[in-house]
Specification:
GO terms for molecular function: holo-[acyl-carrier-protein] synthase activity; magnesium ion binding. It contains six helices and 13 strands. It is of the alpha+beta class. β2 and β3 form a beta hairpin.
Length: 297
Amino acid sequence: MPLARWAFNIRQPLLLENIEPLVTSLTDDDNHGRIIVPVSNLLNYLPKVESDTIRQLHLEDDMRRALVARLMIHAFFTAHHHCQWEDLVFDDSESTRPVVLSPEYLKNVSFNISYHGDWVILVGETESTSGSPVLLGVDVMDFQEQVPGESFESFSSCFQDQFTEKEITFMAEASAEGTQPCTETQLKRFYRLWCLKESTIKALDVRPDFDLKTIEFVIHDEEETEKPILSTVIEVHEPKPEQLPEEGWAFEEALLDADHCYAIAAQSLMEKAILDGSEIRRFDWKELLKDAVPYPA
């Protein structure tokens, strides 16, 4: 089954040439003779309920990540599911992810989105399935989020009840890589496992009280690269959650850059493999906004 894998780096400047300005507040910036537009202009490309929620965010980076995430969702459905940008309506109240309310024929399309650090990442079905349902989850993590100088032991002690003994051993036994100290490689393994667990519970659409120690990840390729890894497998332990299928899982992991990793979790009983190791598609503003139109004020 074809999947979209999209990624967007929020550090990209929004240039006037990429967008028709919808408000008059522009910022002049000598960026090789081009004008940089405030990203807040793009709130006009979202329905009022979505833009009002984003306006409540106080930090610039939080606003950028949330805004890009909603734009990516609209762009994904417009590009792959034959609908108009301005016709999309979502409900955020009953699920851990946005649910399509309109057009109604899109409500069973599986997709998921995640953002952290510099990146927003989306995964979604590019074709609607009428047979076995597909569960999709994705998570991205910034390696640099930990407190500088903090030891792996003190950092990971807060999460002891969320990892199995084998997973903790996998993290603790990481050795130094080149000029990277041992603590840094341990933390990278921590974030890698965290991505796998988060992507799985997002695929299941379960609440935060899910017992993460009931799922254990067996990692065969110990070091991540920008080429996706497909060899990681999941084991389910007692007490087995009722909402957790044991069969049909596949995982795809890779680095987005030196500071960010991501994981995709997919579950389906279809015979054909869902994940095939395709590299993620990296978008710029022009690609992201090519089908965008403003919503009525």
